[in-house]
Fold these 3 entries.
Entry 1:
Amino acid sequence: MSFRLIFKLAATMAIVVFATISAQAFQSSRETINVVGSSTVYPFTTVVAERFGKTSGFKTPRVESTGTGSGLKLFCSGVGVQTPDISNASRRMKKTEFEMCKANGVGAITEVLIGFDGIVIANAKNAEVIDIALKDLFLALAKRVPSADGKSLIDNPYKRWSDVNPKLPAHEIEVLGPAPTSGTRDAFSELVMEGGCRQFTAIAQYEKSDPIRFKQICHSVREDHKYIEVGENDNLIVQKLMNNANALGIFGFSFLDQNADKLQGASINGVKPDFSSIANGHYAISRPLYFYVKNLHAGKIPGIRAFLNEFTSDAAMGPEGYLSEKGLIPLPASMLQMVRVDVSSLKPLEL
């Protein structure tokens, strides 16, 4: 038997096995769309799900806030009614996650960019207004920082904000933020911590010569209770900020917008976080928001295509859509049209 024939037979058997597994995965029925993932995207998806349930004739989708990393792990665990159909993400899917999906037979995935959000550093409404630089945030929160002469790295010695920068308040450093499983934490590491790293020659030199070391230095957060992981519950951060006027919290702009009566956002490099500064790119810490859908599920679970159409409609994602009322920074019209084309064809993601 020729090698070519063996290869064809093996490929055919693989297709048959995959089809059999896929069929078995959907032998039992499920009438409700299941969504997991980012706590930042959660409130947007929840609003769409509620409207969809009231107007579409399909059941209201079940939406869980698990964090981006945990959500994508569940999403990529396989196919079938026991696995999620959609995963929200406050950062783009990583190549390692994409490979995990492929290894577990998830098949084609469609990526849906829904809009933009800013990461904010916030405190209680009655607390001192703060203007802080990326450099200051790195020095306050990094595990290791440059020495006084800038020639080496030392364990972070800074206790108060005024130790970092005399222009900042003489309060103890206390920052409440997300855990490593959160997309907000990933984005904070890349946009804030790496941005601060680049201000120091002793660290910036590694970005090209040793990028792995660069990320290790920049992403490593101190472990002496100056940075406190609060998990995926942003409401818990609000409660703690209300009880401690000197503490700062990290979360998405949309959450700040929803709690504007209790919280205020710090200016970053002299720019306050608001709808316009994030939309025009002047605010330094902005990021795209996504969700991912299993194409195989779109043909098996009732209502997925209709849900995608609702989510990407003008009524939801348009400039005057109901998601902008919740703090989502909408896509430009040309980008929104491209998203709709991709959703309509369930364009497979390539990474």
Entry 2:
Amino acid sequence: MKSTGLSLKWLEAFEAAARTGSVRAAAARLEISVSTASHHLKCLEAAAGRPLLDHGRRPMRLTPAGAVMLRHAETSLGALRRSMSEIRSGDLAASTGSLRLASIEDFDGRAIPALAAALAERLPESRLSFLSRPGHEVVALLQAEDADLGLASPMEPPEGLRARALLHDPYLVVVPAARSEGAEAYLRGEAALPFLRYSLKQLIGRRIEAQLRRLRAELPRRFEFESTRTILSLVAQGRAWTITTALNLAATPEVSAGLRALPLPDAAFSRRIALLQREDLHPRLLDEVEALLRPLLEAEVVAPMLAREPGLEGVFRLLEDQ
């Protein structure tokens, strides 16, 4: 059979450029020079005999031929990456040259520092990167191969990712500690305090709005924030109330004395935090990081929160993966 003459480097450069829409961004992702990335693309297009990318547009777009090439290139490169990961999986420390973990910001205070220390000991020669992002961006980073593992709460199992359920995180009505009303009074708008919303640009904001519609709670739309810390600080000052999750409360111990957490009427309103991994990486990586992470979450997140809010016992808890 006649050789195609294709180079793996050409395909990797093409895949990166197709996903990022930029030769410069592709070069940064592959950690090569812009001129080298451009050379690889020109070689692949010469071998194909036709343009694969519309270089005159910003961001660059795939041509029809490029769309066909990308579909097959992704399949082939994915298979190669999985095989290399499987071959190397016998010694995780030796095979993991770098590890990029993207996480929702709720874990920044205690869990991620503890995990970073554990991974540094487990992978002494590896380069470790930790990124903090909103949940939907964590999934996007993984799907774009800009992260290897993620901690987030996707609404549905994301395509191309493995998921291990870790934490059952209930939504709660959070009010100033000095107030005595029940949750229903706040949801009916009878508490004479403004309701602080999360931005609808965030997944948590959209989930809370959907739940309010289910509960038929019509609350004035006046204040909207992206920062949990800002929201809970205002609540702790006695100025407002909100709906957030137990994990968000656990991440803000500095204002906990000024807060009281109340269960929502619908006890099923909760989210699941999962550990996510790209499918092209060997599942042993997911197994080992999960084994490190579970006891850290129990010690650094769940136990301190239950000490503050004993009523969350059995509700805010680690999950057995299904």
Entry 3:
Amino acid sequence: MVTALIPGSFNPPTKGHLDIISRCADVFENVRVVVIKNTAKVQTFTSDECAEMLRIITKDMPNVSVDTAEGLVVDYAKKIGAGVIVKGLRNARDLDFEIQMAEANNLMTGIETMLIASRGDNIHISSSLVREIASLGGDISKFVPPEICKIITDKFKK
């Protein structure tokens, strides 16, 4: 049984993230989603808050579990025995970055990376877009799963 690892900051999770997770859950028997603290990105939500939102939106996927970690993704992948790292791609910029990371990860550990193209209706969605719209009081319901929409908008009302 191959364990697929889907790492990211998920700050906050979007419909695009959920689509990649769901598609992996259909292919792999065991899917681990890990919120990795990325110091280079804006952290509006804590890793624990992101993980909780991911647990809410994946609650009906029995083969998906969610965790948090710090450090290198490959170290976490080795720790849990992941056979593959899965990353979603929205555009050519994502592809350039993820190919570089996939090669580095493979050189360090031998773990392969699978890149999954986002579906057309999710290509434009990013966590930073959601944060910007929410911070200005806009409607984010088209970009995030309904179960977590209020959690996200409430964060920006404070």
